[in-house]
Amino acid sequence: MIRDLPSSLPSAPGSRYVIVDRRAAARWLAATLALGSCQVAHPPPGQDAGTIASTTSSAASAGASAPVSPVIASSSSAPVAEGGAPEGGAANAGADAGGEPGCPDGMAKVLRTCVDRWEGFLVSRAADGTEQEHPYYERPEPGVRYEARTRAGEFPQAYISRVEAEAACKAAGKRLCTRKEWIRACQGSRGWTYPYGNSHRAGKCNHGKIHLLSKMFGTNARAWKYDENFNSPLLDQEPGFLAKSGEYGECVGESGVWDMIGNLHEWVSDTITDDFVTALEAEGVERRKQPWREGNGVFMGGFFSTGSEHGPGCKFTTIAHEPTYHDYSIGFRCCVSLPAPPRNKNK
User: Fold this and answer.
1) Which helix (H) or strand (E) holds 55?
2) First to last CA, the chain
3) What is the chain's Cα-based Rg?
4) Does the predicted TM-score (pTM) go above 0.90?
5) Which of 243, 236, 216 is nearest to 327 (CA)?
6) What per-residue string of b and e applies to 85-114 under the rule 16 or more CB within 10 Å gives b?
7) Tens-level pLDDT at each residue, the chain (347 residues)
8) What is d(CA 234, CA 134) in angstroms, rounded to the nearest whole number?
9) Phi-psi group of 44: left, alpha or beta (phi > 0 → left; psi -120 to 50 → alpha; rest → beta)
10) Cα(331)–Cα(304) distance, rounded to whole angstroms?
11) Which of 68, 106, 273, 275 is most buried, judging by how many CB atoms fall within 10 Å of its CB?
C-alpha cells in the first residue's frame, strides 16, 4: 500500500490534521534522502523539515533544459503532427486564443469539458472595476476575491492551495478539473504517456531541473522552513526555472492544452479516499510511495524540478498534502462542463 507513515502527515494552517509523530517522519525522510537521487520538494507546514512527509526526487544535476521557441496555437482543431503538437508552428500563433465552440475564450474542448489551455493566474478588481493582476510569486491575500484567468505569455500563479484555487475558478464561472478530465486533456484521444507521444523527450516540457531549494537555501533539508523557504517569493522569481505559459512551445498535445507536464503542479478537485488509492495502485504505474490520509487533495503533472517520481508524464499524481497546503511548486487550471447534447425526441 502507498499509505506509509500516515500518522506523520503534516498539517497546514487551518487544517484539521495535526503532526502526530515528528520522529517517524524524520526517519522516513532520512531513509529517503539516503537513496542519493532524492531531493525534498514538499515539507509540511511547520518549524523545520524534520517533519517532512513527502519528497520529490529529480533534478538533473546538469541543470535546466532550455525552452524551445514559443508556438501558441490559436485552435486545438489544427492537424496533429507525429509527436502530438498541433501542426502549423508560428502560423497558428496567437497569445489570446479564442475558445472552441461552446467554450469560453482561452479554453479547449475535450469531450464534454472545456479545459484552460494554460495554467491559471489571478486577478482582483479595483474599486472602479478594472482588473489588477496578482503577483504570481506572492501568496493570495486573505479576504480578497480573486478570479482565475488563463493566457499565454503570463507567469502562472504559484503558492496557492486547493481551497484558494477552487474559489478563484468559481469566481470566474469555472471549477477545478477532475483528475479524469485532466488526464484526458493531457493524454489526448490516443492515450499517450506524454502530451506529445509515448516516449519522454528531454526539453519539450519544463521539468527535470536542479533543485531550487538546495540552490537557494543550502542542502540541509532539515533546516528548510515552510513559510520562510518553501513559500519564499524568491523561488519562482529565480530566472530559468518557472516559465511563462506557452514558453515551452512543444509541451502540448492534440487537445491544444499547454504545460500539463512540469512548470507547476496543478490542483484537481479529487479528494483522497481508500478507494481512490486502491484505484491509483491498480493503474500499474511505477510511483514512489507517498504518505497519505483520507481528505488529502490531489495535484498533477509535476513541476520544474521533478521527473517521474510520482508517475510518468500525464499520470504524475501527488496525494500527500491536504487541500490547505501551498508552496512554490503548486498552481492550477480550471475547467467548465459543457451541457449534455439534446436528446433526439424521435427515438
Assistant:
1) strand 54-57
2) 48
3) 19
4) no
5) 236
6) bbeeeeebbeeebebbeebbebbbbbeebb
7) 334 333 333 444 444 333 333 334 333 333 333 333 333 444 544 433 333 333 333 333 334 444 544 333 333 333 344 444 444 332 233 444 566 778 999 999 999 999 999 999 999 999 999 999 999 999 999 999 999 999 999 999 999 999 999 999 999 999 999 999 999 999 999 999 999 999 999 999 999 999 999 999 999 999 999 999 999 999 999 999 999 999 999 999 999 999 999 999 999 999 999 999 999 999 999 999 999 999 999 999 999 999 999 999 999 999 999 999 999 999 999 999 998 877 776 65
8) 16
9) beta
10) 12
11) 106
Q: Is 288 left (phi over 0), alpha (psi -120 to 50) or beta?
A: beta
Residue type, 97: A
Length of the chain: 347
Residue 71 grid coordinates? 508556438
Q: Helices (DSSP H) in the chain: which residue ranges?
A: 22-33, 162-171, 179-187, 212-217, 274-281
Cα 210 from chain centre:
18
- Other CB atoms within a 10 A radius of the CB of residue 161 amount to 25
**What is the C-alpha separation between 230 and 217, in angstroms, rounded?**
10
Which set of grid coordinates corresponds to residue 114?
A: 472545456
**In 132-239, where does DSSP find H-type helix?**
162-171, 179-187, 212-217
Cell of 328: 512554490
- Cell digits of residue 170: 468559481
Helix, strand, coil % over all residues of the chain, rounded to 5: 20, 20, 60
Q: Grid coordinates representing 304?
A: 520544474
Of 166, 164, 119, the closest CA to residue 140 belongs to: 164
Q: How many other CB atoms are found less than 10 A from the CB of residue 167?
A: 17
